[in-house]
Design a protein that fits this description.
elongated, Hect, E3 ligase catalytic domain fold, 4-stranded parallel sheet, 13% strand, alpha/beta, 4 domains, Rossmann fold
Length: 514
């Protein structure tokens, strides 16, 4: 019995390049509507609709909807289907994949019908179809090239065009278009994490990750985790310093139009810390339970004490202990509370008297004026170096124009890229080298607050503040003997200077009494 038009089963295939196109006039819904109207006019019964929102770069086997459609045909080999497209470009915008898809339908004995193109199984029809497919492929590649050129041009103008990194979001700004702006409170969290790693507050990248894990606002992946690769990508992203780099487009350290979260100097410190820091995972108890771990050493062997928790009958007990074999103190534990209380006694000795505190304030003011003079000279020196670098760049550009050797040109271009980066650093130093007016009071207040009450920082119990105090107040580790207590520590310069003045005052006072 001959099959009629009414007996034919139709399958509709719709495709857009992205999710964003679903809502516009050429979205999936409008395609399906036109194809259904066509099926009704032909007397076909629509058996199924397969949509795609992924282009696949021309490869139809990378489109989930097309793969599902072919599987649907394979599951019903005895039924003859008509596959309907609203436009030939929905079929395949690549000549080879177009012909491969045609053959895939032919093997499944499925007919193909298009609203704006008539498929014909004749030599002339196949020729025209091939030409149309080649034209679609050409348009796809031209569109891709045009998009790439526009993206590169916008990045050369200082605008980021890819997904916004953590801590930023896009906002349409008059005169700029879509511009990256800090996304609070994430921006402040990212700034704290990056500067913390640069300053040594976070010793490893793992500690940076654990810091972000304590922040509920920091985004996680679908498993609720922050993977280490994400932290590594953040630490190496020049965008946070206000610069745009792209290996794809061959762009290196272009000044961005967006507001930076950190300085270029801080970014360079981060890269140096990444090269020098071991990547072994840090134990979780380092910053949470044992503030002196890694800072206090065994009084017998001078090796840093380890820390651990001992499980008793009813609760757990924190201890420091030496684990150096052959040491007289090997395996001998020291209660954490006792050791840290003894260290608190050492911190109390750093407390200056009121007269010394006043003297310190005068010292800071004199030091600030000296620093200001040095900063002004450094800015002048930076400007001179910038002029020299610009001269070198002009000379290298002239050499590039005079040679046709690709190897030599590549070497000159690499040299110019390095000089451009040096120029950016010098420009930032010149811009930020001289402290702003009024900054003295702010810095003086913070410095004197630290000098006047280091004990308060230790007594607070906050692990971050305690470890900050260790780095600022002492220049070396402190040796601690389980029986004799802490040895005399190496004090940082501010406290050492105050100690010298205090001794001098005591001697002068004693001489006056005599």
């Amino acid at each position: 019995m001959k099959e009629t038009q009414q007996d034919k089963q139709a399958i509709i295939y719709c495709r857009v390049s992205s999710r964003a196109q679903e809502a516009d006039g050429h979205g999936l819904q409008s395609q399906e509507t036109r194809c259904r109207e066509y099926a009704v006019s032909k007397g076909y019964h629509v058996a199924a609709v397969f949509p795609d929102t992924f282009t696949g770069g021309g490869d139809f086997m990378k489109r989930p909807g097309m793969v599902a459609l072919l599987s649907f045909l394979d599951a019903q080999p005895d039924t003859r289907f008509v596959v309907i497209f609203d436009d030939l470009k929905r079929f395949a915008r690549d000549t080879r994949f177009h012909l491969d898809l045609r053959e895939a339908f032919r093997k499944r004995k499925a007919e193909i019908e298009c609203l704006n193109f008539k498929f014909e199984d004749t030599p002339e029809g196949e020729f025209i179809e091939t030409i149309m497919a080649a034209q679609g492929a050409l348009e796809r590649k031209q569109n891709g090239r045009q998009v790439s050129q526009k993206m590169k041009a916008r990045m050369q103008s200082g605008y980021w065009v890819h997904n916004a990194p953590t801590g930023y979001r896009y906002k349409t700004v008059k005169g700029h278009g879509k511009l990256l702006i800090p996304d609070e409170p994430l921006a402040s969290l990212v700034k704290e994490g990056l500067e913390g790693f640069a300053s040594g507050r976070f010793q490893t990248q793992v500690e940076v990750r654990r810091f972000f894990e304590t922040c509920p606002d920091f985004p996680r992946n679908k498993h609720g985790q922050i993977i280490q690769q994400r932290i590594s990508d953040m630490l190496t992203q020049p965008l946070y310093a206000g610069y745009i780099c792209s290996e794809t487009y061959g762009l290196s350290f272009l000044k961005g139009q967006h507001e930076p979260l950190i300085s270029l100097k801080t970014f360079d410190k981060i890269q140096k810390a990444r090269r020098e820091t071991a990547y072994a995972p840090a134990r979780k108890d380092i910053g949470e339970d044992f503030a002196l771990r890694g800072f206090v050493t065994c009084g017998d062997c001078c090796v840093p004490l380890r820390s651990s928790w001992a499980t008793g009958k009813y609760k757990r007990y924190p201890y420091y202990l030496c684990q150096t074999k052959g040491c007289p103190s090997y395996g001998k534990s020291i209660p954490r509370d006792r050791l840290e209380a003894d260290f608190g006694t050492v911190v109390k000795t750093l407390q200056p008297s009121a007269s010394l505190f006043a003297l310190a304030k005068v010292m800071f003011q004199h030091a600030w004026q000296a620093r200001l003079s040095q900063a002004e000279e450094a800015v002048a020196s930076a400007k001179r170096q910038i002029t020299q670098i610009e001269t070198q760049i002009e000379s290298l550009l002239g050499r590039i124009m005079a040679t046709s050797n690709d190897t030599v040109i590549g070497a000159y271009e690499a040299k110019i890229a390095g000089l451009e980066k040096d120029k950016l650093r010098l420009m930032e130093n010149a811009q930020n080298g001289v402290p702003a007016a009024g900054r003295l009071e702010d810095m003086l207040e913070l410095s004197l607050k630290f000098l006047s009450s280091p004990w308060k920082l230790w007594e607070s119990g906050d692990m971050t503040l305690r470890r900050t105090l260790l780095r600022l107040a002492f220049t070396d580790r402190i040796a601690y003997h389980r029986n004799a207590g802490a040895r005399t520590p190496s004090i940082a310069l501010p406290f050492k200077a105050l100690g010298v003045f205090q001794q001098g005052q005591l001697k002068n006072g004693a001489a006056g009494e005599n």
